[in-house]
Amino acid sequence: QVQVVESGGGRVQPGGSLRLSCAASGSISSINDMGWYRQPPGKLRELVATITSTGTTNYADSVKDRFTISRDNAKNTVYVEMNSLKPEDTAVYYCNAVIFRRGAKYTYWGQGTQVTVSS
Q1: Closest to 79 measured CA to CA, from 31, 15, 7
Q2: Cα atoms in the Cβ-side hemisphere of radius 13 Å centred on 108
Q3: Is residue 10 a contact partner of residue 116, using CB atoms and an 8 Å limit?
Q4: How far is CA 103 from the centre of its chain?
Q5: The pLDDT of residue 44
Q6: Average pLDDT per run of 10 along the chain, which is 119 residues long?
Q7: What is the CB neighbour count within 10 angstroms for residue 90?
Q8: How far is it, in rounded angstroms, from Cα 117 to Cα 64?
Q9: In sequence order, what are the residues at sequence separation of 6 or more whose Cβ sits closer than 8 angstroms to the Cβ of residue 104?
Q10: Torsions phi, psi for 89 (to 5 deg)
């Protein structure tokens, strides 16, 4: 079994910064992609950013130049540094880890962490 746990959410004023962390643990030989997604109030879950095991990144247009995703493969951990936060960044942020095992793809999700951007 694989567990994915996010941390680092909270309340911040517009223009502020937050850093989210996500650690995967359990029966893991290697993790393929890791990513951050978010679900704003009343909306569907959407992509924030993803990163491959070799460091290739992909960002949603809405967060480019403000958010930075990174990972520590030795710790099975992914981070997202969020700067210049806006009220529209308010959402529950979810992390996922994609693992290939015996030819099958498994995606594991964390429970989410709330980020609120408000003055």
Answers
A1: 7
A2: 21
A3: yes
A4: 25
A5: 98
A6: 94 98 88 96 97 96 98 95 98 96 92 97
A7: 17
A8: 18
A9: none
A10: -85, -5
CB atoms inside a 10 Å sphere around CB 104? 7
Tokens at 36, concatenated: 């951050």
Do the beta carbons of residue 73 and residue 11 sit within 8 Å?
no
The confidence score (pLDDT) of residue 27 equals 79
Indicate the residue type of 100: F
CA distance 71 to 13: 26
For residue 110, what are its two tokens? 């964390």
Residue 98: strand pairing partners: 107
The amino acid sitting at 77 is T
What secondary structure letter does DSSP report for 86? -
Q: Which residue has the tokens 């994609």?
A: 98
Q: Are strands 34-39 and 46-51 parallel, antiparallel or unpaired?
A: antiparallel
For the chain, what is the total number of helices (H) and then of strands (E)? Answer: 0, 11
